[in-house]
Amino acid sequence: MSAYFNxxxxxxxxxxxxxxxxxxxxxxxxxxxxxxxxxxxxxKGFFQLNQVSAYNNKKLLVxxxxxxxxxxxxxxxxxxxxxxxxxxxxxxxxxxxAVSVSCGHPSLVKLGRxxxxxxxxxxxxxxxxxxxxxxxxxxxxxxxxxxxxTKDYYENR
Length: 157
Fold this sequence. Notes:
By secondary structure, this protein is α+β, with helices and mostly antiparallel strands. It has four helices and eight strands, in the order ββαβββββαβαα. It has helices at residues 23-42, 106-111, 124-131, 137-155; strands at 2-7, 12-17, 46-52, 59-65, 73-75, 82-87, 97-101, 117-121.
């Protein structure tokens, strides 16, 4: 038994089959993966960092999305989603866990980037999970306090 959805516009066939070879499913996965990779390459804020895991010392390649310069919309470093209404360079930043990647980082040098980039995460735990690092508890407490003060300010103005 087979069922397919043909998307001729994009060249994808979605479906399943009872055949044992699975070749069509693998082929479609590769097309989707390549389409995503092409979209990421076209995104000026997307890049990959070489990272060493704090948990097992293995080398990793971590994909991230950087926000732009002052005045641009804050972007989630993990998903690339733009945080509508929140801008780089003002108190909006305090609602996110911000991390700066220095201009000397080998991954940025390889891309020819000369300026440091800022990555915005929802919270320190999201940063830890995605980047495979450990954030000291005092940094988490300080961030939570700053977050609460900023959140209260915005809610009471």
